[in-house]
Amino acid sequence: MLGVDEMAGTDFTVSSRRGGGAKRSRLPVGLLLCLGSAILVLALTAACSLILDLEPDCDQVSNCTPYVCNQENTACLSRCNRYEDCATGYLCELATGSCLTQGCAPLSEPVPLLEISGSGVEYDADGFGDSFWVLYANGEGISLAEVSADGALVGGVEGVIALETDNLASPVQPLVVPSDGSLHLFWLGALGTNRLAIRHYAVSPEGVSFGPVNAYEADYGQNVDQLTGCRIGDKLALAWTTLRQRSQTQLLLLNLDGTYGDDSAATAPNEAAVFIGDPAAGSNQPALAMTDERGGYARRETRAGVSTIMASFFDSQFGVISNHQVSGDEVSSAEGIRAAGLANAMAVAWVEVREGQRVIMRAVDSELSPLRLAWNTNDYTTNPKELSLAARADEFALVWVGDSTAGRDLFFSRFSANGEQRFITFPVRRGAAVDPAYPVIVAVEDGYALFWLEGASPTRTVFFQRYSCIR
Q: CA-CA distance, 200 to 142, in Å (whole number)?
């Protein structure tokens, strides 16, 4: 056997046959050693055996992460041009060609929970106890479904509770508001001709139910729309849009058990609902959030034909602490305003239609000094709409529907308490769902639960999926 020093001065003959003939050339062994080393390194790097001429199995490659194998299955990619170029749990940042972690991983495939038949399907969802709860209206009534933590419909279809089946009551705009002691369900219903009521139903952790009753009865002819609410301190706060010469917002504070006042009345008197905001300005699309013991209130406000997005904090007695404009000088068209609160910050998000449709999210602290000027969706989505916003620990999470190269999709992004984006926006794995709409995001201890509608009338399906997210 030749030693290394002896091999260095030796030439080898390489033969190849073409057309039945032989062609011979002499190569220095040093060159052959370099070529052999290069082949070995390439094979190890790609985790694919080229020397043994085996078909590489890139499903088993782990050291390509955060990228995947190329289309020829011969090497790992080092740059991405689409999110399919990145390994599971990573997404392509098109501006840099880098695969970045998305920070969240699905715990399972999307689960179709229940089919809803009817016209004008609406729903809301939130967590309470060890379960999630879905309240939905379908033009024929309003019903409640319990969903286990792993996405199973508790009791199956037979376990769904019909809260109101009188289609003359026309229940719409379902709202789920959990508190420490009860799960509260609200919706709008008709009181005969030309009069509306906010209906209320409550469920205790022990399964004891109360209602439905009228939590609030509007005046004859009074419009009530865009119902929203949340817990704020030791109260339940409800807000809605009504007409009084112009569109304005009313707020109503209830006790944590859903009753009103010291006498725990089932129905609040009409005068209990107060107008909030500048009486000289029109307002609509209210969104509420809780920060510490304060209430956060966002809305679209219009003065002299100029619209802006405003945010306010108020105390438990509806005293406005401060107001702040969180949009630019003018918002020509804003849709789907959402708000969520942390201990000392509130996030406000909306879709703005001006020079192209975009999502904007801003965070404000409890003193309402702006912490984030703006954030817009990235390259993956156009025509964003139908937002849902949630808060967990020290972050906000935003989900919306948008268009991508794959068609209509759901997109997920997370932000720190000061509004800075965390990780990267990514499309939600939708499984069998192909046409998602109206997402709802719910914060849980280890991440988030997502709900959305699939399909078109007369039958729509509610889907569910859990995500585990690192902080």
A: 12
Q: Which two tokens stand for residue 356?
A: 């192209």
Reported residue count of the chain is 471
Per-residue pLDDT reduced to its tens digit, 123-140: 999 999 999 999 999 988
Backbone angles phi, psi at 373, to 5 degrees: -75, -45
Taking 90 as the threshold, does the pLDDT of residue 361 lie above it?
no
Cis peptide preceding 66, ω within 30 of 0: yes
Nearest Cα neighbor of 160 from 144, 148, 137, 140 is 144
Q: Which two tokens stand for residue 74?
A: 């011969």
CA distance 377 to 271: 42
Tokens encoding 99: 């695969």
Kindly report the average pLDDT of the chain as a whole number. 80
Residue-level pLDDT at 360? 84
Dump pLDDT digits (tens) for 279-298. Answer: 888 899 999 998 877 888 99
Q: How many H-runs (helices) and E-runs (strands) does the chain carry?
A: 2, 32
Domain at 110-469, CATH from 3.40.50.2300, 2.120.10.70, 2.40.50.140, 3.30.1490.20? 2.120.10.70
The answer to whether the beta carbons of residues 332 and 310 sit under 8 Å apart is no
| Burial class, 378, CB count within 10 angstroms (exposed 0-12 / middle 13-18 / buried 19+) | middle
Residue 69 scores a pLDDT above 60? yes
For the chain, which residues make up each domain, given as ranges? 25-101, 110-469
pLDDT in tens, 212-260: 999 999 998 899 999 999 998 888 999 999 987 789 999 999 999 999 9
What is the C-alpha to C-alpha distance for residues 251 and 234, in angstroms, rounded to an integer? 15
Strands 345-353 and 334-341: antiparallel
CA-CA distance, 152 to 108, in Å (whole number)?
Answer: 12
Strands 246-255 and 235-244, bridge-based pairing = antiparallel
Q: What is the pLDDT of residues 19-28, one digit of tens each?
A: 334 333 344 4
